[in-house]
Specification:
Blueprint lengths: L1 E2 L9 H7 L9 H18 L6 E6 L2 H12 L6 E5 L2 H12 L4 E5 L21 E5 L1 E2 L4 E2 L2 H10 L3 E5 L18 E5 L10 E6 L1 H8 L11 H8 L10 H17 L1 H18 L5 E2 L9 E6 L5 H10 L2 E2 L1 E2 L8 E5 L6 H15 L1
Parallel strand pairs: 1-13, 3-4, 3-5, 5-8, 8-9
Antiparallel strand pairs: 2-10, 6-7, 9-10, 11-12, 12-15, 14-15
Helix pairs in contact: 1-8, 2-8, 3-4, 9-11, 10-11
The chain binds pyridoxal-5'-phosphate (PLP).
């Protein structure tokens, strides 16, 4: 089965080689070396200062979102969330679950986030801006300049979920004034799911993370911070995925992250060119290289396309949660080729015929 899903994605051969080996115990120097190496590489690749802090957690991306929110914000804060789909909504739910006051800028499907959306939110006492830079449920890649400028003007903590952005699209944490970046293992990094990563700049670490009262034991980053000084984690880490990450970061470094992003971009472009005459509504918003959403026009059975693609050995995302079930999403990341992108469009056309 070839995965055109947004995560997990097709893995590279070298990752399978890593998976074959016996892992070590995590209270060892060998494991600490891996952790340090991964943290250093990640900081460089994500464009943040070496003084920033990296936290490795055994959880999916949502766990890392939750940890970020509850370690940076308290009930005295007031968060503004960009809600353009499933993941924006998740940020709101996290805030609400922990009684952190929050409001949202709610976007309709295919509605592009613009400066105008922020007009009513200036000087309203917000303390943080929470955004999923690529809202993966609809494919929109928000304009970071608008977000950064608003956060700066209003002196807000800028928390960015870059889970489907990192290694997919360009990302410069410090240059863009981002205080906390959230990533996970199963998307652009193309390794196993189960590793959530939070990266905070020094200022946020010192002013917020170290001083926030956290109503969670497992997700209290203060413990992760003190263990990280020894290159370790307070609880058993996903040792196996750390091996995969270590290997993947070496690969990305050798190849150059820009080149990998460029390849993903090329795959996305080839795919988007090929789908032009499909019976779909094409989003007018700026899109991530990570995936293309296909909103089929009325009368086209997206579920049938999903089922038949699967029979032909190609798995895409079909969202049963989507109200009228006309959406499938095709990813362009991980170990797939340009030819794969042309091939899947060919198959879709045959199925529709
Ligand atoms: C995939 C994804 C997540 C995390 O989902 P998990 O299933 O918890 O790993 C969060 N935010 C975005 C933008 C994503 O694409």
């Amino acid at each position: 089965m070839k995965l055109f899903t947004i995560g997990p994605v097709m893995m590279h051969e070298r990752t399978f080689k890593v998976k074959q080996k016996q892992i070590t115990h995590f209270r060892t120097k060998e494991f600490s070396d891996i952790t340090y190496r991964c943290a250093d590489s990640l900081k460089k690749m994500i464009g943040t200062s070496n003084t920033s802090k990296v936290f490795f957690m055994t959880c999916s991306g949502t766990g890392a979102m939750e940890a970020s929110v509850i370690n940076a914000l308290e009930v005295t804060d007031k968060a503004l969330v960009i809600d353009g789909g499933v993941y924006g909504d998740r940020f709101e739910k996290i805030c609400t679950a922990y009684k952190i006051p929050n409001d949202s800028i709610k976007l309709k499907v295919h509605e592009e986030l613009t400066e105008r959306h922020f007009e009513n939110f200036e000087d309203k006492g917000y303390t943080a801006l929470l955004v999923n830079l690529h809202e993966t449920s609809v494919g929109q890649l928000y304009d970071i300049n608008i977000l950064s400028k608003f956060a700066k003007r209003n002196n807000l903590l800028l928390i960015v979920d870059a889970i489907s952005t990192f290694v997919c699209d360009e990302y410069y944490m410090d240059k863009w004034g981002i205080d906390i970046t959230i990533i996970s293992s199963q998307k652009g990094l193309a390794i196993d799911p189960g590793l959530g990563i939070v990266i905070t700049n020094k200022k946020t670490y010192e002013e917020r993370i170290l001083n926030t009262y956290v109503t969670s034991l497992y997700f209290d980053l203060k413990a992760y911070a003190s263990y990280m000084e020894k290159g370790q984690t307070p609880f058993t880490p996903a040792v196996e995925i750390m091996y995969e990450l270590d290997d993947m970061l070496i690969y990305i470094k050798e190849k150059g992250i820009k080149n990998i992003i460029k390849e993903n971009k090329e795959k996305a472009e080839v795919f988007r060119e090929a789908i032009k005459d499909l019976p779909i509504t094409y989003p007018k918003t700026k899109m991530s290289n990570a995936l293309t959403p296909l909103y089929f026009n009325k009368g086209v059975d997206a579920y049938k396309i999903y089922r038949n693609l699967k029979k032909r050995g190609m798995l895409v995302n079909f969202d049963t949660s989507d109200i009228d079930s006309r959406l499938i999403r095709v990813s362009h990341i991980g170990n797939t080729s340009i030819e794969d992108m042309s091939q899947i469009v060919k198959e879709i056309k045959e199925i529709i015929k």
